[in-house]
Design brief:
The chain is α+β, with helices and mostly antiparallel strands. The protein is built from 14 helices and six strands.
Length: 280
DNA sequence: CCAAGGCCTGAATG
DNA sequence: ACATTCAGGCCTT
């Protein structure tokens, strides 16, 4: 008997989709844009701002989605093993910057960079008797200097962060508009941002812009497809070109259906655990 | 359209 | 202890 409402907070946070969370003895604190969330293990959310958010996508029909993506033994097992794992609906700007920084990096380092960015540029607030730094707004990062951003540890990605922030502040990139676009259209638009290619775009689309058919293909997912799906998805070369990425994504949506992004999250979680990779 | 090299940092390995 | 190698995705050539 599966309880589709039960959320596994630990597995959800430790699945590579989100970075600014910190565990306390009985709950987690997380930064989500201009908001701070406190979540108990039972899944109760207390938020700093009173804004209503559906951080856990609780309106998604999990029963339907999990059945839909369970097309093969591998996915069935991953879904079974990590059934409380959820996709999050994150603050778009924070997600956008997070994954620009994520390229050519790893989870621990991304977290450190983002914490530095919050400390250097975010508003300091007190919530629950503790001090926190909110994620900075686009205007602030857009007007920062290259050196200031570099000091956060992002290296050559500093220019990407500044230009990307400018594009958001000037509304050249408008997240509300992207939410209303179809996947392909939103992806074309977001790929115009420097530092955003296929993989980073798919992360942003999946984790903050409600595009559930987005299926980020990083080195781990490629490895997973080669290992568990050598017949279904034949991968010829080591590095995936843009064209190959597109063709592969088409095959993936054919196989998993329009909720493919959920499948990606379960598969990624499973394989990273198999290799005992560290999370936050 | 594709292939190869460079970018930056920290962890892992020698 | 130190030096080298590697992991990671995007951009330019």
């Amino acid at each position: 008997m599966v309880d589709y409402c039960k959320i596994d907070l630990e597995n959800t946070i430790n699945s590579g989709q989100v970075f600014l969370w910190k565990k306390y003895p009985n709950f987690w604190y997380g930064i989500d844009g201009q908001n701070i969330l406190r979540i108990t293990d039972s899944g109760k959310i207390i938020s700093y701002s009173k804004n209503k958010i559906d951080y856990f996508r609780e309106k998604d029909d999990l029963e339907k989605i999990l059945k839909a993506i369970s097309k093969d033994k591998t996915t069935q097992q991953a879904v079974q093993k990590y059934q409380g794992l959820r996709l999050l609906r994150q603050d778009p700007f924070q997600c956008f910057i997070s994954f620009i920084i994520s390229s050519n990096s790893n989870i621990q380092k991304i977290k450190t960079c983002l914490e530095n960015i919050c400390e250097s540029f975010g508003k300091k607030v007190v919530f629950d008797g503790n001090e926190f730094f909110l994620f900075p707004e686009s205007k602030t990062l857009a007007s920062a200097s290259n050196q200031e951003i570099r000091n956060c540890g992002v290296g050559y990605r500093a220019d990407f962060v500044i230009k990307a922030s400018e594009m958001v502040y000037s509304k050249k990139i408008d997240f509300e508009c992207l939410k209303n676009c179809k996947y392909a259209e939103a992806k074309d638009l977001i790929c115009q941002v420097p530092g955003i290619g296929d993989k980073v775009a798919d992360c942003i689309l999946l984790f903050s812009l409600d595009k559930l058919e987005a299926f980020p293909l990083d080195r781990w997912m490629i490895r997973i497809l080669e290992k568990y799906y050598p017949q279904t998805f034949k991968i010829s070369t080591k590095t995936i070109t843009h064209r190959q990425y597109e063709l592969l994504h088409e095959k993936i949506v054919n196989h998993f259906g329009s909720f493919a992004g959920y499948a990606q999250q379960f598969l990624f979680k499973m394989e990273r655990e198999n290799y005992k990779k560290k999370w936050l």
